[in-house]
Amino acid sequence: MSGTLQPGDLVLLTDRKGRRYLLTLVEGGEFHTHAGLVPHDELIGGTEGMQVRTTRNAELTVWRPTLRDYVLKMPRGAQVVYPKDSAAILMHADVFPGARILESGVGSGALSLSLLRAGAVVVGYEVREDFAQQAVENVTSFLGSEAAGRFQVEIRDCYQGIDAEELDRVVLDLPEPWRVVPHAAASLHPGGILVAYTPSIIQAVQLREACETGPWAAASTVEILHRGWHIKGDAVRPEHRMVGHTGFVTTARKLAG
Ligand code: SAH
């Protein structure tokens, strides 16, 4: 999205210390921090990349949030899939525009946002109505109504079955993905891909065992290690802190016959 900032647009404000604030512009609105306030009207009509000062003279830079910014700041109930893992899931699941994907659970919709932004048509199964509603709100708020029209969330237990045929992909982030493996085998077309995200390696192993007894091949499990580097003059070294663990990404493809 480009052009001037309008009422209703999402913006991300960053300060010199790297703090980040997400807000929706409202005519007459005010953004308050401990470092003073900025009237929204100062941002409306401006462009991203501009810098403004609060009433207490703190400098803030104005951006349209990236998907990564949004996912880390959006309202959430369940734990979200981290951007580094969503990026890998997109590639492992080979998501393409128009891909028919069953996703379960939906949670706060962080992973759904990535699938939809890559152009997929997503049916989500989620047992918690409040999470389902939050996910739809998050998708609509960041991607708008076109993407929300490709996102259908049903309040259902995925362990009970999948009501679809000839799916391109099944993407899972729920506690017992192995219970969905037989349903995925029945609903994917040959060559279709199953991807599951699991925080624990025990879950990944149990999933792999379930895949061994069905029409599956090319199974793999990976974790994504993401280490930032501090680069400032002669001080060039890895960051002292990193997110040491999030989850494992397991992939398998369905055989014919
Ligand atoms: N991937 C999501 C987070 C999912 S958290 C995101 O990135 O935002 C796991 C979700 O699975 C929770 O919302 C939970 O309610 C849901 N869930 C657990 N068991 C389920 C089941 N059997 N069927 C459907 N959803 C289930």
Short key terms for the protein model shown above:
4-stranded antiparallel beta sheet; binds S-adenosyl-L-homocysteine; alpha/beta; 7-stranded mixed beta sheet; 15 strands
Characterise this structure:
The mean pLDDT is 97. A seven-stranded mixed sheet has the order 9-8-7-10-11-15-12, with helices on both faces. A four-stranded antiparallel sheet has the order 2-1-6-5, covered by helices on one side. Strands 3-4 form a two-stranded antiparallel sheet. Helix 2 (83-92) crosses helix 3. Strand 5 and strand 6 (59-63) form a beta hairpin. The protein is globular and about 65 Å long. Helix content is 25%, strand content 32%. It contains seven helices and 15 strands. The protein has 257 residues and is α/β, with parallel strands linked by helices. The site of S-adenosyl-L-homocysteine has 22 residues, from helix 3 and strand 8.
Task: Please write out the topology.
Elements: E1 10-15, E2 20-24, E3 30-33, E4 36-39, E5 51-53, E6 59-63, H1 67-73, H2 83-92, E7 100-104, H3 110-117, E8 121-126, H4 129-143, H5 145-148, E9 151-155, E10 167-172, H6 181-187, E11 188-198, H7 201-212, E12 216-223, E13 229-232, E14 235-238, E15 248-254
Parallel strand pairs: 7-8, 7-10, 8-9, 10-11
Antiparallel strand pairs: 1-2, 1-6, 3-4, 5-6, 11-15, 12-15, 13-14
Helix pairs in contact: 2-3, 3-4
Bound molecules: S-adenosyl-L-homocysteine.
